[in-house]
Design goal:
Layout lengths: L26 H19 L6 H8 L3 H7 L3 H26 L3 H18 L1 H7 L7 H24 L8 H13 L1 H4 L8 H12 L6
Helix pairs in contact: 1-2, 1-4, 1-6, 4-5, 4-6, 4-7, 5-6, 5-7, 5-10, 7-8
Length: about 210
């Protein structure tokens, strides 16, 4: 491999004395700035309608700096997908590690899923959006859905959820309800994250407990 073809992650050189607002940030922080900005634009205007220029214009940077950190627009999209799924799995891991009780796991799953959406709304909205998925993303989404289904199945088997509900159907219905939050939630909205979570728990949990 030609070393000159390797894309480095570090501090890009300024070109023509360009002001670089990322200069004081770490490499990971700089990538996060691009990710968050791209996610907001993809969410608001759609992936296909957002160009690399739109992302760099929003940051006041040149396209050259973008390409220092990313190969292309598709790469940043796939990283958004990856981070959203990892956030969901990370919080679910914590729920499952904290308790073995089926009801606590189900309510904890609902809370954790909602909190990830409300903390990373744009990332999750892009994950749930129309942009093309990689096979890796599709597999990661299926694996997360399967983990949720196992929690639902345990709740049904324990008798706290009505066995009349097929586990797979209930899983899809539950995720559909929770994911809808990404379409309308705003941090400055009239209800806090805690209030929204409590309302969703009433709808999702108390509506199906026996």
């Amino acid at each position: 491999m030609n070393p000159s073809n390797i894309r480095r992650v570090g501090r890009p050189r300024r070109e023509d004395h360009e002001f670089n607002p990322l200069v004081s940030l770490t490499a990971e922080e700089r990538r996060n700035v691009f990710l968050d900005t791209a996610a907001e634009l993809f969410e608001g205007h759609g992936y296909a309608s957002t160009s690399v220029s739109d992302i760099t214009d929003a940051l006041g940077l040149s396209k050259a700096i973008f390409y220092y950190y990313w190969k292309n627009k598709k790469e940043i999209l796939l990283e958004i997908h990856s981070r959203a799924v990892k956030a969901l799995n990370h919080d679910l891991d914590q729920v499952l590690a904290a308790t073995a009780d089926p009801q606590e796991r189900l309510t904890g799953l609902i809370k954790s899923h909602l909190m990830v959406i409300m903390r990373h709304r744009s990332l999750v909205a892009v994950l749930l959006g129309e942009a093309a998925y990689s096979e890796e993303t599709l597999q990661a989404r299926r694996q997360y859905t399967n983990r949720v289904q196992r929690v639902v199945e345990a709740a049904i088997e324990s008798g706290i959820v009505d066995a009349a509900y097929p586990a797979k159907l209930l899983t899809y219905a539950l995720l559909g309800l929770l994911n809808s939050t990404a379409q309308w939630y705003r941090p400055d909205g009239p209800r806090s994250a805690e209030e929204i979570t409590e309302l969703y728990l009433r709808m999702a949990v108390r509506g199906c407990f026996t």
